[in-house]
């Protein structure tokens, strides 16, 4: 994303920022920058109906124009990276009346301008800085697979996109071994063609193959063999680039463990997602201890932050960026205030991308979590809580018997 | 309705008297043949002959046209070992003796004094040839029936009439009948008939069914009667279309005719087998079926069914019907027939409507009462066991050895494997290759997927499920364990390997077995030859494992320890001949297996459910599913639904182990051949159920979970048999008390290992699951919880 211009009027707070998106990834940044309530000025195509004053015949025409709209809602399609912003027209021109509704398509290589009437808060400023950072690492392709199932994902700095899901019935053992091998080959064939469609491998691009067992290794061998057989240099290069990683299942959420595996970390230590995966992991570790230092959920975290427990040292606030896309201004402000407070206290505020696997895990915790400097209890409202919290972490065999008999 | 209760017995007698008239007029040839036949039959019957009167024998001979074998069979069936109902006997016996009254219209047709007995003899169609059926018999299927001048059964020499002639004659006769209607006599006849039909509900039911279907069948008496009349008076053989007969008010006389023959046989005619045409149309017939079928009015759609006359001897047919209705599929003809017999016209109509639903004819159901069959069948016990244990404990090798010793695998096959394995430098894997058939598995020397195999001992049919031990393939092991009745835990006794296994999959597998409800375990302490058959080692392992198992809630009496050597075959089928092992006197593995077969109560009454564990295409291109029936029963012809795709199919064939069966019940591992479904709609892990009682699909489930690790809102994999679905723990509703199940704490943040919680699971896809099923929750390659769906 390129910054086209930045205009700061003296008397007003509404700073104008003009941006030029350069690739689909920028759409995602734009999606994070533009929130309901903002004014967006961009190129628009609109159908205008003119009535011929002489004959009274309506005449529809598609007009290219520039429009300013006050954003009501945004829609982002992650698979094709298209961003649509709908709202009401805020500045009249000869074609469109004020107050008319319009939906803008933000396009690559057409600049747009954002005006935030409420000013740019710290989170928005961060997002802008992130968007402008000229860190162009090609997206990494990853195939998480198991027998008969493959998820083809593109992992970029800021998000993970599941491009295709390949499912194929691989015969089980009852059939002769030949059938089984044929089934596997068919599955690989399907996966490879989907992979080549999903990601462009003409430039070298890292590829992760993850699976339980030997499926990933076999797939890599298969690609190499295909490259040899067809003397296809691209395929040979793909096979060479591919890193085989162990995963425990072929479902997308296994990507989380893939991303923190030593093989991946060695290669892309500095990638944002690798760090995010580490944060969320350390949070889960603390949560397992259940010693009152790890909390999740808005209310609990709010209390902790208000108490100053997320402070210098080990205090970390983990928050999903989806919270800042809230349509409700007050909510948005509340979370921004939380982040600011943690920063002021000297804690670490990490905004996770909700489009990564780690963000997905955080989302399950209610989009927000915190690691406190010191243990706090009673952050959740339930008064009856304490008794259960004393459950010894060590498993008592006898108890388990009772329960197994009960449960089973 | 017991046949004896008929209140029109007098009428029956009356009629029988009518018929007797011609009986005495046997031609001389007949008399000679009769005499000869009687002697022969008596000879054939031997001692039993005293139980039968000469009249009965002659009667039988007459009906069977002096076919000795058939007569003997008939007599044996009817008089010597009769089905518990005297009515048919009573009805048939008096017939030849009594004098006619000549009142009935039917008589007019026999005026010419034919030497032919007008009644349809029982088993009349038993002599029906398979091929080259006489035209006269075929015609009865066509409407209106073509009546012929020739004698039925091929004895006659009377000329046949053409179709057109018959039609013309029929019209003529109709007019005559119309005239005759004014005659009070015939009116009376009708009244009688009405009374009769009231009493004989079943007959009318049958008739109405015939009407409904508007097609005639060859074997029901009403249609034969006119034909025989026609033999003698070709011009008078004008009985018209069968379908209309009952409804036509004009056809009084003929109507009376048709019903009367039935009257003496309140339980319908016997053994009128369908014609070859009918058989070809509806079902290939077999001896066995005929035996069952003999009391059935063959109706087009019930041809294949097996209504047994003895139904009436059972305490309460209504109960049976109700039970059958609750259980059987609506399409089984048996049921519809039963309905009809209990004169439930509404149900009958429903049955007919049901029959018309499918456009393409599905595989024919035999309408078996599966539960009854199952209870009666004194077949061997069926049991399946899963072989679990840490990777490289020797599970596959042990099972390979077992099959080899039982001669289910040939020595030369194993030799071949051994040579191949040698080439790859893995000689010791040769036995495992019996199970590890995939090239991947052989290359790597690791079982990846479950292998299924069968063997039988004198008392039991066993299904082996050889599970992989590697941690990556635990999902496959879960699939195997959920199909098993009990388990064989293989433990590597060699130094170091045992300790490693205990920490590894030995523990996880046992935990999973417990969670999946497997109660009995045979612990095979393997590779003892590597430690010189040390008794101390065996003891040490037994004690430790025993403590661990009982700690998990396995009962001590359901655990057995057997020292074995899978590689050499000691104590597997044969006792070890090694001196060092002489201290062991307990059972061999195979004895241990037999002793472990649980006598579980199978849930037969519940709706049919089967989780698909394998899908393959048979040689004929049929989609075939394999799996274990979780509950309920199934039979050939049943309509099934595959969930979650919601596609329906019909059962074409059922294979139990290696034999074809007509039905299967819960607990059996079967292969089901399906008709009418595209294989793309069927996935491993799907559930098959009856169309009538389908399983619901959903993506959100509450479950009472026993936590083995920390539970918090996080991504998880849910396993149930082969079903493997990704999802998340959406929320933790409550922490429960382990003993009482009461809520200790609402909405806990995290569940500690060893505690029990009610959690809400949300899956990414919709899957067929229902309350009461056991599921396993895993994440990151570890089993973190197991429990019941609520």
TrEMBL record, chain A:
Transmembrane segments: none annotated. Residues 380-408 are annotated as: Disordered. It is found in: Cytoplasm. GO terms for molecular function: metal ion binding. Residues 1-133 form the eRF1/Pelota-like N-terminal domain. InterPro entries: eFR1_2_sf (IPR042226), eRF1_2 (IPR005141), eRF1_3 (IPR005142), eRF1_Pelota-like_N (IPR005140), Pelota/DOM34_N (IPR038069), Pelota_N (IPR058547), Ribosomal_eL30-like_sf (IPR029064), TF_pelota (IPR004405). Its cofactor is a divalent metal cation. Keywords: Cell cycle, Cell division, Cytoplasm, Meiosis, Metal-binding, Mitosis. The keyword Transmembrane helix does not apply. It comes from the Eukaryota. Residues 398-408 have a biased composition (Acidic residues). GO terms for cellular component: cytoplasm; Dom34-Hbs1 complex. The keyword Cell division applies. GO terms for biological process: cell division; meiotic cell cycle; nonfunctional rRNA decay; nuclear-transcribed mRNA catabolic process, no-go decay; nuclear-transcribed mRNA catabolic process, non-stop decay; ribosome disassembly; RNA surveillance; translation. Component of the Dom34-Hbs1 complex, a complex that recognizes stalled ribosomes and triggers the No-Go Decay (NGD) pathway. In the Dom34-Hbs1 complex, dom34 recognizes ribosomes stalled at the 3' end of an mRNA and engages stalled ribosomes by destabilizing mRNA in the mRNA channel. Following ribosome-binding, the Dom34-Hbs1 complex promotes the disassembly of stalled ribosomes, followed by degradation of damaged mRNAs as part of the NGD pathway. Belongs to the eukaryotic release factor 1 family. Pelota subfamily. PANTHER family: PELOTA (PTHR10853), PROTEIN PELOTA HOMOLOG (PTHR10853:SF0). This is Protein DOM34 homolog. It comes from Trichoderma parareesei. The lineage of its organism: Eukaryota, Fungi, Dikarya, Ascomycota, Pezizomycotina.
TrEMBL record, chain B:
It comes from the Eukaryota. GO terms for biological process: cytoplasmic translational termination; regulation of translation. It catalyses: GTP + H2O = GDP + phosphate + H(+). One of its GO terms (cellular component) is cytosol. Residues 380-602 form the Tr-type G domain. It is found in: Cytoplasm. Transmembrane segments: none annotated. Its main location: cytoplasm. PROSITE patterns: G_TR_1, G_TR_2. The keyword Cytoplasm applies. Gene3D superfamilies: P-loop containing nucleotide triphosphate hydrolases, Translation factors. Keywords: Cytoplasm, GTP-binding, Hydrolase, Nucleotide-binding, Protein biosynthesis, Translation regulation. One of its GO terms (molecular function) is GTP binding. Residues 1-27, 195-272, 326-347 are annotated as: Disordered. Residues 198-241 have a biased composition (Polar residues). Belongs to the TRAFAC class translation factor GTPase superfamily. Classic translation factor GTPase family. EF-Tu/EF-1A subfamily. Component of the Dom34-Hbs1 complex, also named Pelota-HBS1L complex, composed of dom34 and hbs1. This is Elongation factor 1 alpha-like protein. It comes from Hypocrea jecorina (strain QM6a).
